[in-house]
Amino acid sequence: MKQLFISLILVLLSASLFSQSTDTTFIIKSEPFGKERKVYVHLPERYLENPKDSFGVIYFLDGQGTEYWNNGKSIVDYLVWSYQIMPVICVGIHSDDRGSEFVPLDENLDAGHEDNFGRAHLLQKHINEEIFPLIERHFRTTAFRALIGHSRGGAFVAETLFSDKKDMFNAYIGISPGMHYINRQILNRAEKMIQGGDRFHKFYFCTHGTVGALEKYFKPQVDFLDSLFSAHPNPTIEWSKKEISATSHWGCVAPSLTLGLLKMNRAYQADQYLIDLWAEKKDVNLKQSLENYSANQFRKLNYYLPVDGPNLRYYAEQQAEYDNHGIAIQLHSLALAKGLKDYRSFTNLAWSYRSLKQNEKALEYYKKALEYLETNKAEMSPERHESRVKHVKKKIRELEN
């Protein structure tokens, strides 16, 4: 294979309301298309702040659509920043001719026939053999990949899932997808695979709006898939659809992205919603609940991402705000077991133990916080260090007296 990386032409630091993120544009020479192609990469703040961590990858079709790409990566940024989804980076796939690149060859025509203009197979080859290696070579990534497509891009999403290329991605999201092309060829293949009980091990989510001619045309296509999955339950796919009411073909994009990403994350990782559900049960063992959930989802999807320390701590802090300090302690303890041992974790644990009137344990963790401050003094400003030491010593005196 030829050297794929031609040039890194832009590194732009763009400040948002909440974070500092990085955007990069690559130009690569594509063998399937016989020309140069652009690939956009967006790194969230969390990627830059955690140089030892690896991130999943969300691949957006229609990267050439500036407003669409900016909207998508901003939504991902916010959800990663607020601990709502797993740590991911975004890749925007630039298309020169989405009219042909997103639809397959007509199975009833010879590949060289003048009317057989579908080039989805070339785009799949471009992604699999050129973009994937590029991303893996230049960035810290996990094995997790998701594909998101809107409108005709949703046709490419379905064309890839319902084919022998389905293992290119773990998760598929189709926003107001048009899957009717070539006499419903994509839907016909989907019907055959679903009725035949094919093993997918995938997450698949589709949406549509309710306003305008396009949504009235695309809704029955999504409903057709839903009827197939209802009639032929498949334990190896996590399928769901959502009608985004009072939205048009364009208005449904942002809410679909947010909802789809949240649902996708929940399929592959326990989130705050599940933690809250489990916490309602008396005497719940969260460690066991997390293990059971991960085993079930792995059987279905062949992939699962354990909740990391920062997310566990965030969920613990939320439980403490509800005065569920026993649950908070369980979550903090799980975060500590993953190596998250710092000032914030120790003081939060101390607060929860003190709230439960377990003052000896509270004192233990305040002292750990003090030890941490002394050991890591050089990593913070003198003012912050002094303020934190003063705060912890005050809490220790209160407990000792």
Q: Explain this structure to me?
A:
With 401 residues, this protein is of the alpha/beta class. The protein folds into two domains: 264 residues, Rossmann fold; 95 residues, Alpha Horseshoe (Serine Threonine Protein Phosphatase 5, Tetratricopeptide repeat), CATH 1.25.40. It is 51% helix and 18% strand. A nine-stranded mixed beta sheet has the order 1-2-3-5-4-6-7-8-9, with helices on both faces. Helix 2 packs across helix 8, helix 12 packs antiparallel against helix 13 and helix 14 runs antiparallel to helix 15. The longest helix has 19 residues.
Superfamily at the CATH H level of the largest domain? Answer: Alpha/Beta hydrolase fold, catalytic domain
Second CATH tier, the architecture of the largest domain: 3-Layer(aba) Sandwich
Helix content: 40-55%
Oligomer: single chain
Query: What proportion of the residues form beta strands (DSSP E)?
Result: 15-25%
CATH class of the largest domain: Alpha Beta
- Shape call: elongated
- Overall average residue pLDDT: 93
Largest sheet: 9 strands, mixed
Number of DSSP helices?
15
Structural class: alpha/beta
Our count of domains comes out at 2
- Strands of the biggest beta sheet: in what spatial order? 1-2-3-5-4-6-7-8-9
Query: How many distinct beta strands?
Result: 9
Low-confidence segments, given as residue ranges, are: 1-19
What's the N-to-C terminus distance?
Answer: 72 Å
